[in-house]
């Protein structure tokens, strides 16, 4: 059984512990309610809120900058369409306003919609009167028949192609022959054909605006019995008839 003295010591220690707890609790409470604690806490909260506002502002600014970059990239890819909404350019470089008459595709090959296309169309303001005249003339020639033979009257290779297509086949409508050496715009038309078909030399045989080659190419298709199929495939509905003509005496083509 503990002695009386030990009991008193334990009681004294317990009293001291209780008093210490009460003191510390009241001191902490008074500290939290003090003006210094309150002002310090408010300042810290304000700094934290300011940091959050700054972070949100930076995020919003980044989103706007990304949107501006996307808009600039779209303008660079197609500056003409970006400059004027609803406006587009024609294949020959002249501007076409939405709703302009005569824009329907009539199925006839035109300059700029066949063969190799230029990487950059000339602006309408820079297009010369002569270029426009050549384009108009070439489009008019392409409408004369599904098959156009661009030729030169003195060229032996042109004579070979014309003899095969005009004498050894029945083609309806008949191929149309354009002698470039007799045309007032012959050199310009030949240059335009280089741009649209990738071929400058004559003869240059076009079916619906697509070049199938020159004299040797036509002779090869003829000898391989593939010319009729080629004409039907490229001519489509514009070719009403294509058959071999009755046999004639053998023709010896000399270059």
TrEMBL record:
Residue numbers spanned by region Disordered: 107-130
GO biological process: cellular response to oxidative stress
Gene3D superfamilies on file: Glutaredoxin
Glutaredoxin domain sequence ranges: 147-212
GO molecular function: glutathione-disulfide reductase (NADPH) activity
Signal peptide: 1-27
Pfam families attached to this UniProt entry: Glutaredoxin
GO CC terms of this entry: cis-Golgi network; fungal-type vacuole; Golgi lumen
UniProt keyword annotations, A-Z: Signal
Family per similarity comment: Belongs to the glutaredoxin family. Monothiol subfamily.
Protein name from the UniProt record: Glutaredoxin
Organism of origin: Aureobasidium pullulans EXF-150
């Amino acid at each position: 059984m503990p002695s009386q003295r030990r009991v008193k010591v334990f009681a004294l220690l317990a009293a001291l512990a209780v008093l210490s707890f009460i003191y510390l609790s009241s001191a902490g409470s008074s500290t939290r309610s003090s003006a210094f604690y309150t002002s310090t806490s408010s300042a810290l909260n304000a700094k934290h809120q300011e940091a959050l506002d700054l972070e949100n502002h930076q995020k919003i600014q980044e989103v706007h900058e990304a949107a501006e970059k996307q808009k600039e990239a779209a303008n660079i890819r197609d500056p003409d369409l970006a400059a004027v909404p609803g406006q587009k350019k024609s294949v020959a470089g002249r501007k076409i306003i939405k709703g302009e008459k005569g824009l329907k595709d009539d199925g006839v090959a035109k300059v700029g919609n066949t063969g190799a296309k230029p990487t950059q169309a000339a602006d309408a303001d820079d297009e010369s009167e002569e270029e426009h005249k050549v384009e108009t003339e070439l489009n008019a020639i392409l409408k004369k028949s599904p098959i156009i033979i661009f030729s030169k009257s003195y060229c032996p290779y042109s004579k070979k192609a014309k003899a095969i297509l005009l004498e050894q086949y029945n083609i309806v409508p008949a191929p149309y022959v354009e002698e470039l050496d007799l045309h007032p715009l012959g050199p310009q038309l030949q240059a335009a054909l280089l741009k649209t078909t990738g071929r400058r030399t004559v003869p240059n045989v076009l079916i619906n605006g697509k070049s199938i080659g020159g004299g040797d190419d036509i002779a090869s298709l003829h000898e391989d019995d593939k010319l009729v199929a080629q004409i039907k495939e490229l001519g489509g509905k514009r070719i009403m008839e294509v058959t071999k003509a009755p046999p004639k005496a053998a023709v010896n083509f000399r270059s």
